[in-house]
Design brief:
The structure holds 2 protein chains of 2 kinds.
Chain A: H1 3-29, H2 37-55, H3 58-82, H4 87-106, H5 131-136, H6 140-158, H7 160-170, H8 172-177, H9 182-208, H10 220-230, H11 235-257, H12 264-284, H13 286-292
Helix pairs in contact in A: 1-6, 1-9, 1-10, 1-11, 2-3, 2-4, 2-9, 2-10, 3-4, 3-9, 6-7, 10-11, 10-12, 11-12
Chain B: H1 2-22, E1 29-34, H2 44-59, E2 63-68, H3 75-86, E3 89-94, H4 100-109, E4 114-118, E5 127-132, H5 134-148, E6 153-158, H6 163-179, E7 184-189, H7 196-208, E8 213-217, H8 222-230, E9 233-238, E10 249-255, H9 258-270, E11 277-280, E12 287-289, H10 297-311, E13 322-323, E14 329-331, H11 339-343
The chains are: A mainly alpha, B alpha/beta.
Amino acid sequence: MDLLPVALTIITASTPLLLAATGELVTEKAGVLNLGVEGMMLVGAIAAFAAAVSTGSGLIAILVGAFSGVAVAAIFAVLTLTCLANQVATGLALTIFGVGLSALVGSNFVGISLEPLPQLNIGVLSTIPILGDLLFGHDVLVYLSFLMILLVGYFLSKTRSGLILRAVGESHDSAHALGYSVLTVRYLAVLFGGFMSGLAGSYLSLVYTPLWAENMTAGRGWIALALVVFGTWRAGRIAFGAYLFGAITILQLHVQGWGINIASQFMTMLPYLATVIVLVFISSDKMKIRINAPQSIGKVFYPPR
Amino acid sequence: MRIKSFLREILAVFTIATISCVGVANAETKVGFVYVGPIGDHGWTYRHNVGRLAVEKALGTQVKTTFVESVKEGPDSERVIRQLASTGHKVIYTTSFGFMNPTLKVAKKFPNVRFEHATGYKQSKNVGTYSARFYEGRYIAGVIAGKVSKTNKIGYVASFPIPEVVRGINAFLLGARSVNPEMTISVVWVNSWYDPGKEGDAAKALIDQGADIISQHTDSPAPLQVAENRGVKGFGQASDMIKFAPKAQLSAIVNNWDNYYVERTKAAIDGSWKSQDVWYGLKEGMVKMAPYTNMPDDVQALAKKTEDAIRNGELHPFSGPIKDQTGKIVVEAGKVADAGMLLGMNFYVEGVQGSLPK
């Protein structure tokens, strides 16, 4: 049994989860709970696919996908931050809206096939046996997902702006009293979340399964949301969680193929079971969750007159 | 989108209003369709919708069709079916197994409406059922696979362990073993009819384990697309998917409801409609094979020969001797599997790897 192809498949399965979770991490750290990840991913997926079909350019497609995610996130931002709508209800509505909108736009793109994004060949590095394939033979979005989680981790813990963003998420009233613009910070955080969800959607329709199919995210947006909690709002743990989830999904398929007799339903359930167990584990230690969970998450900020 | 049929409804009201104004009332029959998935799935529901369009084309102004897509199986579907029945639809097609009991329940309340339920097994005076013998196509696909495969290993992406799917797996392997007794099948269950990402991952896993033929009983073209990218061969599901895999698709088992829908709708209009239970195959044209592509000429000829033999009844895919996984003979030499065994199939034939989930 060759483990290399398994590892490669795990990377492709984990990348969309990691991209979307990175965006949601920033959004939640700023104190906004956006449950519309699935919807933003779907809109990103169809927009990227449509752009790829009509322009033939992978780069344009990725940008269009990402910024469509931003556009949908902007709707959410206006409704919850300016109009002060309930974040949970608006987020759910956003997902349903995204499912419908992407299906409507996508009806013209059903049954079209696409060449997947080319793999980057980083000179001689790609030709190193095993390591070359494992580390240097991917498409641009895989590298971007690593880069983004690293940058976000650094941004949140080591930079002044990151601390301001966290302050807004911890206590918007205090941040406001200190003179920071809570709304500006939150707008940017929500839009960044949309950008990353759009990228995750683009990855699905351009690389993962290069086609458009209605509702093709199939719940990955929700997994990304769970991942943020699973990783207790820490970049490193989220990256680990994304790969753990990806690995379990792929391994359960291999286990079946090998003919090992474990109920496939049980294996399908495993990632979610793992989430629940981790939730119980982190919640049992009150300090652990208190340190990382943004205190103002989901709360509406009424700007004082 | 329900909104589509809603808009069409409004449009229809306007049209009818206009027509009645000038006094040429048109006696059109309303025909309803209930779909389990989106018409854009490019598989199961897509083909049912092609059938609906065929009805519109064949019967023109005699009919007006409505469809409701992505209807959940269970109580939700009952509401949708009742809605269609109470808004003057005279024929209603419910196109998923899980719509069976809701259809029967609504049918009792509307004795003058004709119901047609796909893949079910319960009929009543105004509920007929219809299904297709997809396993005939699977057998042909198996024969092709047996000839084309070099690793002697087939990867099968499956949805749920129900008799319909198990029958397909068995028919595929019986076909493959009829030309190459070394063939085996590995099955991966994805527990979904429709999850392109997971279907594709399953295909990747199977190819990584040495399968060089991919077959699927799920609704998206993703597994076939993976086959194309990895340079192995595969088969389309429910509709011709050659656009997704111009180099990999060997053929596809195409569901063809067009003629059935046209005939039954006609029968309902002229009053000759009677409840029936049909299970049509290649012979009646409900199962069709997409063009045989990407294979040597002799394999193509063999595939055509097999197709003809099944069509004119010379060959039954489940002809004995058939052994199950334990080596026990389940169909004796010279006999064919009876309808009961086919409809309730709950065992793997010899050569399928792994055990069947219960």
